[in-house]
Amino acid sequence: MAMAKVIRAPSGSIRERIRIARDRAELTRADLGRRVGVKPSAARQWESRGATTPRIDHLAAIASVTGVAFEWMATGRGPMTLANGEDQAVIVVETFARDADEERLLIAFRRINPRHREPVVKLVEGLTR
User: Fold this and answer.
1) What is the DSSP string of 48-91?
2) Residues 82-116: pLDDT tens digits?
């Protein structure tokens, strides 16, 4: 089996990885947006310095549309493309943080002693009612 080539984005930023993947797939920003299911302006923002980053479900779609590995797209780690015949790991979007606030909560929650997590879960659930 051929080894997949590892390519790291020059700045390591997600916007650079999106641009690299989009260029590699020979897509315009508008094309990428349409294929991912967002407005072209959203796709343009993903590559702009200091602008918004795509949600996890959009990252998965970008990886799929451009033919790159999800792990590389999301983190910059691992091979950019998968070896022939290798499947992408399946992700369940609902179990990932969708924005910076959810990610902060998840990181903080993981730091809590497991014995003390239940009251936190009950508090958050109570706030959703």
Assistant:
1) STTS----HHHHHHHHHHHT--HHHHHHS-S-SSPPTTPPPPP-
2) 766 555 555 555 666 767 788 788 888 888 998 99
